[in-house]
């Protein structure tokens, strides 16, 4: 998990790492279950077999209760890390819920991802005793990662989404342009993580950047010649994985020590 890995990369103690991980896990469960609950009717309309309601495993009412239950757990877990980091994380989760409830159907579908990923990094940083705000470049990289992940994640479902009235940014762009935007945002995030830290990039950063660029080139080429292929999505997720790994490697440079009082 990104939150746990970043916390460990920042030298977090056991208590802080456990609280941060538990708060983020509860928040993500609430977001995931709320998405399946809110989209249950749409998923049934297009018969998506990967969804629990379509598969007959759960009904929307159960998912709704689980979503609010996880949200209820997320709030105290978040504030157990401190008042300011707790508030930051609650806003990040609220932003993600806004995507599920409304913004996914608008041209602003990317915004909750940019906000939530940037705030997630801030939450992890602020939860660390003796640490201050994360660097601006770290927040920018996390936000770009969120945008790229959003667009890439939507790629396999563009047609099903459009058939049920979802017209987010990737749907308005179309598959080829959306693939280009996803890869562009992810590569921009990687460029920031590689080039922005003080002292210049190390060998691992350059290797990660080269791997990500190679994956992006293949993904773009496949998207041009095989319109319905899922490979661009898979490769985009691989690029996102490289970005996450580079963020974790850069964790010591992401956050400065809190100023003395």
In short:
Keywords: Membrane, Transmembrane, Transmembrane helix. The chain has 261 residues and is mostly helical. The chain contains 13 helices and two strands, in the order H-H-H-H-H-H-E-H-H-H-H-H-H-H-E.
> What name is given to the CATH topology of the largest domain?
Tetracycline Repressor, domain 2
Number of helices: 13
Largest sheet: 2 strands, antiparallel
User: What's the level 1 CATH class of the largest domain?
Assistant: Mainly Alpha
Low-pLDDT residue intervals, each spanning 5 or more residues: none
Element-by-element helix/strand order: HHHHHHEHHHHHHHE
Instruction: For the largest sheet, list the strands in their spatial order.
Output: 1-2
The amount of beta strand, in percent, is under 5%
Structural class: mainly alpha
CATH architecture of the largest domain: Orthogonal Bundle
What is the number of E strands?
2
User: How many individual domains?
Assistant: 2
What is the radius of gyration computed over CA atoms, rounded to a whole number of angstroms?
19 Å
Shape by Cα distribution: flat
**N- to C-terminal separation?**
33 Å
Helix content: over 70%
Average pLDDT number = 86
């Amino acid at each position: 998990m990104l939150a746990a890995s970043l916390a460990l990369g920042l030298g977090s103690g056991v208590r802080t790492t456990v609280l941060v991980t538990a708060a983020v896990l509860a928040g993500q469960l609430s977001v995931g279950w709320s998405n399946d609950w809110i989209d249950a009717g749409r998923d049934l309309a297009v018969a998506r077999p990967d969804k629990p309601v379509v598969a007959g495993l759960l009904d929307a009412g159960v998912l709704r209760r689980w979503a609010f239950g996880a949200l209820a757990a997320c709030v105290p877990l978040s504030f157990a890390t401190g008042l300011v980091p707790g508030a930051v994380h609650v806003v990040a989760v609220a932003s993600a819920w806004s995507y599920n409830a409304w913004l996914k159907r608008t041209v602003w579908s990317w915004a909750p991802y940019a906000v939530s990923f940037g705030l997630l990094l801030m939450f992890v940083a602020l939860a660390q005793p003796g640490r201050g705000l994360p660097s601006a470049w770290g927040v920018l990289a996390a936000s770009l990662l969120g945008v790229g992940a959003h667009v890439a994640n939507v790629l396999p479902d563009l047609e099903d989404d459009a058939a049920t009235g979802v017209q987010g940014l990737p749907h308005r762009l179309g598959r080829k342009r959306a693939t280009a935007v996803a890869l562009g945002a992810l590569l921009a995030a990687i460029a920031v993580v590689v080039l922005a830290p003080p002292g210049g990039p190390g060998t691992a950063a350059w290797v990660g950047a080269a791997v990500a660029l190679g994956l992006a080139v293949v993904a773009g080429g496949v998207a041009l010649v095989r319109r319905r292929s899922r490979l661009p999505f898979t490769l985009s997720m691989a690029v996102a994985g490289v970005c996450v790994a580079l963020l974790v490697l850069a964790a010591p440079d992401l956050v400065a020590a809190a100023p003395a009082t």
